[in-house]
Design goal:
Blueprint (H helix, E strand, L loop, with lengths): L2 H4 L1 H18 L3 H7 L1 E2 L2 E2 H15 L14 H26 L4 H11 L7 H7 L4 H29 L6 H29 L2 H37 L2 H27 L4 H12 L3 H12 L4 H29 L13
Antiparallel strand pairs: 1-2
Length: 339
Amino acid sequence: MKTWEKGMALWVALCMGAGIALSQLVPGIGRTLDAWQVRGISIPIGVCLFFMMYPALLNLQLSELRKLRSNPRPILLTLLSNWLVAPLLMFLLARLLLADQPQLMVAAILLGSSPCTAMVLVWGRLARGNQEQNVVNTSLNTLAIMVLYVPLVGLLTGLQGIPVDRVQLAISALMFIGLPLLLGIVTKRLILRTRGEAWFLEVYRPIVEKISIVALLLTLVVLFSLNGDVLLHNLGLLAVISLPLLLHYVLVLAYNLLVTRWAGLAYGEGIITVIIGSSSHFEIAIATAVAMYGVGSLAALGTTMGLFWEVPLMLSLVAIGKRLRARGFWRGPRPELDD
């Protein structure tokens, strides 16, 4: 396991702490960073989020989607969890627990309506799951987000009577998914033609993946430097937004475990279905919250807490999956797993 993967939860916590410290040590930093905007989109956050998204979208492989015919069941179960079970459950939890905090409710809906298309490749590899299915699923979810994300968020926020600027929501999706996706497709094809697949896989992609980690950590520092005062004066808000996020994770995880067992999936397919079906695309959720409400908003803080919990929860899921495999939870043989 790479060093950054082992210590991701620690790096996330340290960067959050660094951002809060900056907000107190350099009081004007929030106003300065917040002033760098174009049509309501923060330039520093926009640049960081772009470099977080671009490497993930390099993994899109349209050719892999043809394999759906051979074994569609795990893919269909994942899509059901990602686009029906998870968003509806998050909507209900947000309505129950965040009714008096509309921005935090929107943050929860943004997280619940955005299936992960990036970090799941890491979690799937650590769990020794079926990586071919992982690539197919993430490729399909990448395309699905372009079509379903904006109307789904608009529908769920509308049901609760929360006004959301759908134009700004669409702009966020185009800026932080559409543009990186287009550039990912173009640069990948160009590199494959000029330098070959080996150079792309062994040199280019590892470099941009490292850049994405730096961008992720810088985003946390910037977000928490902007939200430092809000956070320190409203520490209870962390617990307020964390409760529905954690409940959502537990319930969706339980659902996916039971469904994959009921469907008779083997471990390789079952664990990938559970991982993708139980995770969220915190990058686009953060980007959308920032674009709609601003970098110092409660919505931005709420979506950032999704990232804070995502890393330790997914690492715990990898460990749970290995234990369940050893006990024969899924169909098939129980060979030893490498640590």
